[in-house]
Amino acid sequence: MTSAGQSPRESRTLNQVVGPPSPTFSYGGGRGGAEAAPARRITPGINLRRVLRVGSWNVVSLSDDHRLPLLSGELSRLRVDIVGLSETRRPGSGETSSGGYTYYWSGMSNGHRVRGVAIGISSKLQPSVVEVTPVDERIMRVRMKHTLSFMSLVAVYAPTEMRKTEEKEMFYAKLDSVLDQCPPRDTLIVLGDFNATTGTVKRWLRVMCWSHGSGTRNTNSSLLLNFERVQKVENCRFLVSETRAAPLDMV
């Protein structure tokens, strides 16, 4: 089954496996966690001796397929290898390819075109994908092989400041659960939009390894700080655009 506007040659749902090398596709489990499936058909993997450009981008919408070539063109221009996308607004979960990139997405299960996350991977690295786990419309995980071990990429889209505290706490609890299920030896990278204003107090920026800050700390700021302490985040970077256009944040 393909999404609207997608040809069977370009896209397939995550419960289908077509052609070698094939990643393992699994679905999020109950109680807010993700049920991982065993990896298979492992390729030699990403060569870590080469520069790997990883970024995140709130794209506002990828609900229509005609936007994909534009996105792929920009990622190619910036020489981005892997990107975490938020607010994609694509329902369900699936995979599609366009312009030299393969996109895995996870969205609303009821068909609504709101929220949504995705991970875009350069087609030259796509054979290194061994596992794809859509969790819900705010979290998904992709596991890749590299020359030394594995890499777990987690794309997120956190609730905005105006959402209820209960919803925010549920998001972070589910995110903690997903991260806890990542193999401990994996290189872990969390990408996405946490909808948090970091503030400009330098002592907090130094403590959390932030190189940029803006605005005033709020509820989302405190939740993000707590998440980083619990997960022992070693490095993070926040960039703020001077314009209204959504920036591409490079990790």
Number of strands: 12
Task: Tell me the distance between the termini.
Answer: 35 Å
As a whole number of angstroms, the C-alpha radius of gyration is 17 Å
Q: Tell me the fraction of residues in β-strands, as a range.
A: 25-35%
Number of helices: 4
Which structural category fits the helices and strands? alpha+beta
Any idea of the CATH topology? Deoxyribonuclease I, Chain A
What is the CATH superfamily classification? Endonuclease/exonuclease/phosphatase
Protein name: Craniofacial development protein 2
Domain Endonuclease/exonuclease/phosphatase: 56-197
GO molecular function, one term: catalytic activity
Region (Disordered): 1-36
Topology:
Layout: E1 11-12, E2 24-25, E3 54-58, H1 68-77, E4 82-86, E5 93-98, E6 101-106, E7 117-122, E8 129-134, E9 139-145, E10 150-157, H2 165-180, E11 187-193, H3 202-207, H4 219-231, E12 248-250
Parallel strand pairs: 2-8, 3-4, 10-11
Antiparallel strand pairs: 1-5, 3-12, 4-7, 5-6, 6-7, 8-9, 9-10
Helix pairs in contact: 2-4
Overview of the molecule:
The protein has 251 residues and is α+β, with helices and mostly antiparallel strands. The chain has one domain (47-250): Deoxyribonuclease I, Chain A. The chain has helices at residues 68-77, 165-180, 202-207, 219-231; strands at residues 11-12, 24-25, 54-58, 82-86, 93-98, 101-106, 117-122, 129-134, 139-145, 150-157, 187-193, 248-250. The strands form two sheets. The chain has a seven-stranded mixed sheet with strand order 1-5-6-7-4-3-12. The chain has a five-stranded mixed sheet with strand order 2-8-9-10-11, covered by helices on one side. Helix 1 (68-77) links the parallel strand 3 (54-58) and strand 4 (82-86). The chain is globular and about 40 Å long.
